[in-house]
Automatic annotation (TrEMBL):
One GO term (biological process): DNA-templated DNA replication
Name this protein carries in UniProt: DNA polymerase III subunit delta
Cited InterPro entries: DNA_Rep/Repair_Clamp_Loader, P-loop_NTPase
Location of region: Disordered: 1-23
Length: 335
């Protein structure tokens, strides 16, 4: 990883981990990078690429790797330093902006997307590529998405849009129709383990291996498991679901802990782990021929996702939401 620490603050930054703009070591997506560069060399690089895949697997890192290659020219080192610091004149990184009162906005707004017009105007006389990285498109609000669509419909010469997308369902179909889709797979556990070793994340070798196995191919997920108590939460959930009868004392204790003020990350990790288990159980039931059970688990997954979205939007009691989930989950028995 690069030892440069110049990139602007970002809403999803992890302490001690290089941002995608700073990270000059792409792992697991070398074939995707080769595909994009081959299209460039052949003169058939489409103006907009949709980089799709689960969150945290390296889509933004790939986008910045492409930018370094296309903008490097005769002075690749200087271009890389400019990209890392967010100061390269031919690169615009559209992401959630800092809020006026601290923190970051919850969406990418139309004001951010309008920067594209100024960006392309001020770089119009440059014969190099002009690259816009949208990171991620999932965060675009409706007006911002429509503004981006307008630019994609009439792209400037030698422009390249690299659009990060975690959940295809959150993307306007009209945006997708104007892009080439490059689907990125989750990273294999050995690759994740190697990245954790390179980052020197403080953890035992066994815990790094366990985090890599549980993170579903996401570097970000593995780091969160190790640094935010996620691995301990996973182990406690393992024990709770392995018990022959529901252990409500342990469930209550877990719900109490992860819903305390200041423990929002722990709550999010618990929720992610619960839904991952629900999805895995549904898949296992389907593969083993338990069609009715698989259908019930799928229905419960959808109902619970909607219930949590609504509950969090209206700031309902998080502890009660978790306890209700465990009740509904344990009530789902039978073939």
């Amino acid at each position: 990883m690069s030892d440069v620490d110049l990139a602007p603050a970002e809403h999803d930054a992890l302490e001690g981990v290089p941002s995608p703009a700073e990270n000059d070591r792409l792992r697991g997506h070398e074939a995707a990078l080769a595909q994009l560069l081959a299209a460039h060399r052949a003169g058939r690089l489409h103006h907009a690429w949709l980089l799709q895949g689960p969150r945290g697997i390296g889509k933004a890192t790939l986008a910045f790797a492409v930018a370094r290659q296309l903008l490097g020219g005769d002075d690749a080192g200087n271009a890389a330093r400019q990209i890392a610091s967010g100061s390269h004149p031919n690169l615009l990184h559209l992401t959630r902006a800092e809020a006026d009162r601290g923190g970051f906005k919850t969406q990418i707004t139309v004001d951010e997307v309008r920067k594209l017009n100024r960006f392309f105007q001020t770089t119009a006389g440059n014969d190099r590529w002009r690259i816009a990285i949208v990171d991620p498109a999932d965060d675009l609000n409706r007006n911002a998405a429509n503004a981006l669509l307008k630019t994609l419909e009439e792209p400037p010469d030698r422009s390249l849009f690299l659009i990060v997308n975690h959940l295809p369902g959150r993307l306007l179909p009209t945006i997708r129709s104007r892009c080439r889709v490059l689907r990125l797979d989750p990273l294999p556990a050995p690759v994740l383990t190697g990245i954790l070793d390179e980052l020197a994340i403080p953890a035992t070798e066994a815990d790094r291996g366990s985090a890599a196995a549980r993170a579903e191919g996401s570097v970000r997920g593995a780091i969160m498991l190790l640094t935010s108590g996620g691995l301990e939460i996973e182990k406690r959930l393992d024990a709770l679901f392995a018990a022959p009868e529901p252990e409500w004392h342990g469930i209550q204790a877990l719900a109490d802990e992860v819903t305390q003020r200041g423990r929002e990350t722990s709550f999010d990790l618990t929720l992610a782990a619960l839904f991952a288990r629900l999805a895995a159980d549904g898949e296992a039931a389907a593969l083993s021929g338990q069609g009715r059970r698989a259908a019930r688990l799928a229905r419960l997954h959808a109902e619970e996702a909607a219930r949590f979205r609504e509950g969090l939007a209206f700031n309902l009691d998080r502890k009660q939401m978790l306890l209700t989930h465990f009740h509904r989950r344990f009530a789902l028995a039978g073939p």
